[in-house]
Design goal:
44 helices; five-stranded mixed sheet; elongated
Length: about 1000
């Protein structure tokens, strides 16, 4: 084929048109001696162009021709290739899709003959045909060669489209069955004395058991052994174990012909730690007493395949009743909730989006959903008891357990994803579930799936489309039939029975399925547009509710909100069109009582959960809050109306803060949970403290305007104390304050004091009036003389008191003092007055330190509630908030005068400053910070879950589980949460003993 210099040959152009990417190399191969007889044959070029990778197919063909033992054999291959289209399509199809099978043919050039036969029985071979194909194998090496020869025929039918993906997977499982039998036969022949002692059954599990195997996959098995008649059981099981081990090695070990596949027996009772072979009675004893839910899920696919098939059938018959009772187990719901979470943490971040099996929208999503529905409904419906995913999905749809349309879409997506998986594995015959990144590989895979126009782009588009379908339907699959069952719209559709609907709700965590179904009926029934949108939303919402500790409460609260806002045009549109809003609402409504209670008082606040004009969930700055509250106060008619407006803003912003906290703690599908627990605590503390300060500022303005007009006869300031001054308020915290005033020029001090006292009493009264808004309790007990002293003093009176009477505990309390409302200049001067007290120039004397320690020890003894477990008391228990705060504050009192960084009201900021100043080691500071953050989170969680403040973990199991979810613990791990808290607190207490109490032993 000599071309004119400088011009492309016509063959080169034709090669490009036929899909070759390296036309120059292809030209050289076509000019080779081996292909000389077919050099100008258009049939060959057309056939090569029809393959997944024409370059690979041509190279494989030339290698196969070169490997033929003599010219006569080469001529026979060429003649058959041109004259027999079935062989041509099969052989070139395999060579263009699998480099590994091309290598096999080059090593065993006569095996192309396995592709010649084209008869009806050849199109759908079963175990018997594959056993015949392996019959001549008499050692592990020849078994591998025979296995690959059989694999050639499966791959040929697959890539040519003669069989679909389900049929190919079934054939691969049948070939595995035949191979296990052949391997066991070799093992028995090698040890006839062992064979004589025992009966051994091989039970296929996983994809082999389900008749849906991949090209390259571990073959999961379980071994059952029994003694032969008259044999000793112990000796028989040892003999069976030797046979089983030898069989596994025959399949798994690498030889000159490679390996077949690993045989994995880790699904057996006790996994790797359990005996490889057990008797049937031993298996049953384990499953009846110790097995976990996932083990019964795995047994769905159990199928006897080799060895003593009668014993295998006995095994399956014995375990099946246990499988179908799994949904009745005590921990089934918690196990299901754990299993429903996609396990992607162990997948490297760079691989998550390429994972066909474990990634979002992957194969495991489909398989798990189908298996879970089988476990729930298969106990009463034997038609669902199939080990094959697609057969089970078809049966679920026929029985009304899954919507027909959903099942059809899922079936199509699963077939595509499995086909993609097959093509990826077929190339190198390597076990992988990752979509490659190399463009040439993607092009070959796309073409093998029939995508010829733009293979790479089309493959990505189809893959993402099907993965999106799986992700969308994965949760919907559980819940859509529930809605169909209660809404009863379409006629002629099979529906869940009332009992089946109840079973499913129980399995998914709903404690009161009857009430839950009534709520669904109320929400989804009818032909209105509202009901139609609800039917679209509810399948996904129900899944999010089920992911919480209290699904029943989530659904009930959703019904309440929907009833309140049902006629509001924007409500359902917000949930439908803004994905974040629906999931955020589901999280908030099912996480506890506080946030739903706040929302129910003004349901329109649901708008905050979206990304639109509601401002989202980002806390608003204090200046903006004050501006809004003061504007509302100025518009109001009288102090009572003004403070009602201010409290309304407070309620809305408390909801915003709580919702943001819940969403940040739980995470969403798009945004994982906040990893920095300290950041969550700081955001809540700052937001609630700023909101409280703005509310007090608005209330002060309202009271002054109502009683005195524009100006009070005395300057007035509110000083935040305790957690309020430290910007660390929780949801249930009172506002600790001091009130200070200073008569204006020319105003009598008595008149000024009366005015200031009236302001204080009116502020307290208005903020506590019973209403739909939560009260704001003002606590002034940290004032001079405590409850016995006046509520408000002049700045001069404070100065006189602190100069003459101040006690050490008051200096301690003043560490948290910060102006929060009122006259800014007066607040600044109050701080100037107290700074020498809280940051004494010479530090604290020994007696003052001893007094603080005595006071702390007495508080630990006397203030802990009777009957409370000290080790789990987040405030007063060892290693709790009090321990950490007093330790940090002692450092501030001792060193604040010379270390400016310690002059802060915030605990974590002061702790960081002490670390920076070398007053505490990095390790000890980290220990105290971790304990303080965790204890604060516990208190916030208790308030969110129970709707009332508390310092200890709840005793109610559901409430305790909800606290655990908020703290990042999955269902069933409440014990881990409590152990983790005790451990963290114990470490912190050790540091406190040394730094606060001066105990030097660690």
């Amino acid at each position: 084929m000599t071309a004119v210099p400088g011009r492309r040959s016509s063959t080169f152009t034709r090669l490009l048109r036929h899909g070759f990417t390296d036309a120059s190399a292809a030209e050289r191969l076509l000019d080779s001696v081996e292909l000389a007889p077919l050099r100008d044959d258009p049939v060959l070029l057309d056939a090569l162009g029809a393959t997944a990778d024409p370059d690979l197919a041509l190279l494989g063909l030339v290698r196969l021709l070169e490997a033929q033992p003599n010219p006569g054999a080469r001529r026979e291959l060429l003649d058959t290739l041109i004259s027999a289209k079935p062989l041509r399509d099969r052989l070139l199809g395999v060579l263009g899709a699998s480099a590994a099978l091309g290598d096999h043919l080059a090593r065993h050039p006569g095996d192309w003959q396995a592709l010649v036969t084209y008869e009806a029985r050849d199109l759908h071979p079963g175990v018997a045909e594959f056993e015949a194909g392996l019959a001549q194998a008499d050692d592990p090496v020849s078994l591998r060669v025979a296995y690959r020869r059989c694999l050639l025929s499966i791959a040929a039918r697959d890539v040519c489209g003669t069989t679909g993906v389900a049929e190919s997977a079934a054939e691969l499982a049948d070939l595995a069955t035949a191979t296990l039998r052949a391997a066991l036969g070799l093992a028995r022949a090698a040890a006839p004395e062992d064979d004589a002692l025992c009966r051994l059954a091989v039970i296929a599990m996983g994809k082999c058991g389900g008749h849906e195997l991949n090209y390259v996959s571990d073959v999961d098995v379980i071994f059952v052994g029994e003694p032969a008649e008259g044999a000793d059981e112990t000796k028989a099981i040892r003999a069976a174990t030797r046979l089983a081990s030898h069989m596994m090695r025959i399949c798994s070990e690498t030889t000159v012909e490679g390996s077949i596949w690993p045989v994995d027996a880790n699904l057996r009772p006790e996994g790797r730690n359990g005996p490889l072979v057990r008797t049937l009675a031993s298996h049953l004893a384990y499953y009846q007493r110790w097995a976990k839910t996932w083990e019964f899920q795995a047994l769905l696919k159990a199928r006897p395949v080799a060895g003593d098939l009668d014993l295998g059938a006995e095994y399956v018959e014995a375990v099946q009743p246990l499988v179908w009772k799994a949904a009745e187990r005590e921990n089934f719901v918690a196990d299901v909730q754990k299993m429903r979470r996609r396990v992607v943490e162990n997948i490297p971040a760079a691989e998550v989006e390429r994972q066909l099996k474990l990634g979002p929208g992957g194969l495991r999503d489909v398989e798990f959903a189908v298996q879970l529905l089988q476990l729930v409904h298969g106990r009463t419906d034997p038609s669902l008891r199939s080990g094959t995913t697609l057969d089970a999905l078809k049966a679920l749809a026929a029985g009304g357990y899954v919507g027909r349309s959903d099942a059809a879409q899922l079936d199509e997506a699963y077939r595509f994803l499995r086909s993609l998986e097959h093509r990826i594995q077929l190339f190198r015959l390597r076990r992988t579930h990752l979509v490659p990144e190399d463009e040439a590989e993607l092009r070959r895979i796309g073409r093998s799936l029939g995508l010829r126009t733009d293979p790479v782009a089309d493959l990505h588009r189809e893959w993402r489309r099907h993965a999106t379908v799986v992700r969308r339907l994965h949760e919907k699959l559980f819940y859509r039939p529930l809605l169909d069952a209660v809404a009863q719209l379409a006629t002629g559709e099979a529906r869940l029975s009332a009992e089946a609907a109840r079973e499913r709700m129980v399995a998914l965590g709903y404690a009161d399925p009857a009430s839950a179904l009534r709520h669904l009926e109320a929400l989804a029934s009818g032909v209105t547009r509202k009901a139609a949108i609800q039917r679209t939303l509810l399948p996904v919402l129900l899944g999010w509710f089920a992911d919480s500790a209290d699904p029943d409460a989530g659904l009930l609260n959703f019904r309440k909100v929907s009833d309140a806002l049902g006629k509001t045009p924007w409500y359902l549109r917000l949930l439908r069109d803004e994905g974040a809003a629906a999931q955020n609402l589901a999280r908030v409504l099912s996480a506890g009582r506080l946030a739903p209670d706040l929302l129910m008082r003004a349901p329109e606040a649901v708008a905050l959960l979206g990304d639109g004009d509601g401002g989202g969930l980002t806390p608003r700055p204090r200046a903006h809050l004050e501006q809004e509250i003061l504007a509302a106060v100025n518009r109001a008619d009288g102090a009572a109306q003004a403070v009602t407006a201010a409290r309304g803003v407070r309620r809305r912003e408390l909801f915003r803060t709580a919702a943001a906290d819940i969403v940040g703690s739980y995470g969403t599908e798009e945004q994982p949970a906040e990893a920095d627990q300290g950041a969550l605590v700081d955001r809540v503390g700052a937001a609630v403290s700023d909101l409280t300060a703005a509310t007090l500022a608005g209330t002060l303005r309202a009271v002054v305007r109502d009683g005195w007009g524009d100006e009070l006869p005395t300057r007035f300031a509110v000083i935040g104390m305790g957690r309020f001054g430290g910007h660390e308020l929780g949801y249930g915290s009172d506002a600790d304050v001091l009130f200070v005033h200073e008569p204006r020029d020319g105003v009598d001090e008595r008149e000024a004091s009366q005015a200031a006292s009236k302001v204080v009493s009116e502020m307290r009264r208005l903020l506590q009036i019973p209403s739909a808004d939560p009260p704001l309790l003002i606590d002034a007990d940290l004032r001079p003389e405590g409850k016995s002293g006046p509520l408000v003093r002049t700045l001069t009176s404070y100065a006189a008191y602190y100069r003459r009477w101040s006690l050490t505990w008051e200096s301690h309390a003043l560490l948290r003092a910060e102006p929060v409302a009122g006259d800014a200049d007066l607040g600044r001067r109050f701080i100037e007055l107290i700074d020498p007290l809280r940051y004494p120039a010479g530090g604290l004397g020994d007696e003052a330190v001893r007094e603080i320690r005595r006071l702390k020890a007495r508080m630990e003894r006397e203030r802990l509630p009777r009957g409370a477990d000290p080790k789990l008391h987040a405030k007063l228990g060892p290693g709790g908030l009090s321990d950490v705060e007093w330790t940090v504050q002692l450092l501030q009192l001792r060193h604040g005068a010379r270390e400016p960084g310690l002059r802060t009201t915030r605990t974590r900021e002061a702790l960081a400053a002490a670390r920076a100043a070398g007053l505490i080691t990095d390790e000890d500071a980290g220990t105290l910070d971790e304990a303080w953050v965790l204890a604060t989170r516990v208190r916030n969680a208790v308030m969110l879950v129970r709707g009332r403040a508390g310092d200890t973990f709840p005793s109610d199991p559901r409430e305790l589980a909800a606290v655990g979810r908020y703290l990042g613990h999955n269902p069933g791990h409440v014990g881990d949460m409590l152990d983790g808290y005790r451990r963290t607190a114990r470490r912190a207490r050790t540091v406190v003993e040394e730094l606060f109490y001066g105990v030097t032993e660690r």
